[in-house]
Amino acid sequence: MKQESGATHPIWEDNISLPTTDHLRENRKCDVCVVGAGIAGLTVAYLLAKEGKHVIVLESKSIGGGESSRTAAHLSTALDARYTNLINTFGEDGTRLICQSHTRAIDKVSEIAKEEKIDCDFTRVDGYLFASTRQDEEKLLKELEAIQQFGWMDVVLRKECPAGSLTALPCLHFPNQARLHPMKYLAGLAKAFIDKGGEVYTDTHVVDFKSGPVVTATAKSGHAVSANHLVVATNAPANDKATIMTKQAPYRTYMIGLTVPKDVVPDALYWDVQDPYHYIRLAGNSAKDDGDTEILLVGGEDHRTGQENNPMKRFQDLERWTRTKFPMAGEVRYLWSGQVQEPVDGLAYIGRYPCDFDNMYVATGDSGQDVTHATIGGILITDLIMGRKNPWAKLYDPTRSGMKGAGEFMKYNLNVATQAKDYVTPGEVEDPAQVMPGTGGIMRDGTNKVAVYCDQDGVRHKFSAVCTHMGCLVHWNNVEHSWDCPCHGSRYDPLGRVVTGPARKDLDPLK
Ligand SMILES: Cc1cc2nc3c(=O)[nH]c(=O)nc-3n(C[C@H](O)[C@H](O)[C@H](O)COP(=O)(O)OP(=O)(O)OC[C@H]3O[C@@H](n4cnc5c(N)ncnc54)[C@H](O)[C@@H]3O)c2cc1C
Ligand code: FES
């Protein structure tokens, strides 16, 4: 399988066999065109194909080639946005529905895996939100109070955490959570979709979206798919400039996989309430089975995309934190990073995209919980396209005001505004010769900034550092070997080609 753009290697990419696909070679018509073959795109495509719709999926890279191969795949109802916050924003009734939608999503993943016989290590496990300090303990008690306020009585306070080395303080016990192997699930989902008459075109990057009674998605090659409905499931919506991207912020999040002696860490999901936050699970047997040891996956140390000069330090901090919590941990076998979209009010944006016609849909704003959000998206958008009512539609409506999370909305957009400072700061290098092989650096050239990449053969490639989404300046990411935009998280490979939207166009090459 292809890696994102360089340096790191997610555990889920080992020994995966994906259905064979081709790129789009001619203009096509269908009922529904889905852009993006991650968990969100393939779930909605599969559910619509099951309803008898002719669905075509267009994907820039490979199946699961975006963030879905980088997830930790905790399937959880212990929402990162915290019920304490959700209840303030969405009220008791809304929060109860949110909780029900995530519960339904975990059940739905289980049903799909069973029905399609997808061997993806789907396992029901319990989850524990733990405190590391007395202050954290207060947060747990408040969270429990909010949970009980909207009527969920299954969550209880436990005096001891089952993973004793993690903490001596209490934790909240969330029963009936789950974990899976995301790429095995996606490979099975893609196969089931294709068996139902669905078509997937990979290496097909969409550069233009046209709304109208018939919607058109045009690929870089010039070939287009026309459809009655279009679903944009590109993680950050590739059709959007500022409608949604001002209401969510991109964060890089880091993961390591280390060996631990078998059967020493109880099989469960664990999360803390610190900032930056940490999440933990066992990889499971289908990911890696190594005799006396198994792989423990620990994630966290998030930061705003393009706003960390030394991302390698995040891995070091994560490893240090892990070794204090799991002194029995052995060598680090895997490390990788990925991107999540944090909506201002903690809830994904799923539903009709605001435009002149009501046949364009979007699923974004994963909030680090996209296995469930993507499944909610699949159910919800399928209902909208099939003309059925859905009780979650209003909650997840992409047109809802950013003011529901007014504080975060102001913070996100102030942060974006301050990135304009990059236009007046000096470059990191004064001459392209200062950029070493395998690295990138930003150089000032008069009033312009230039992104310089030196390949392994010593050839230096130069691009305008101006992000093609809305004009902020990109930064070099020395962990993933990519150019990252600090405003809305677009990312480009070392040669300036789009890796992650919302940008659709590559960086402008310079002579
Ligand atoms: C390290 C990490 C840990 C996480 N942990 C969890 C977790 O424990 N639980 C959880 O629920 N979620 C978690 N998440 C979040 C979630 O799993 C992922 O964000 C999710 O899988 C994203 O799915 P997606 O389908 O929205 O996006 P993606 O998988 O990124 O799929 C979008 C696809 O669209 C394609 N695309 C983009 N632009 C275009 C274009 N113009 N034309 C054609 N194709 C395009 C991309 O190539 C990509 O394949 C985590 C994420 C990360 C990175
Ligand atoms: S991602 Fe919006 S300006 Fe770069």
TrEMBL record:
The keyword Disulfide bond applies. Transmembrane segments: none annotated. Keywords: 2Fe-2S, Disulfide bond, Iron, Iron-sulfur, Metal-binding. GO terms for cellular component: cytoplasm; membrane. It holds the Pfam family Rieske. This is Glycine/D-amino acid oxidase. Residues 427-511 form the Rieske domain.
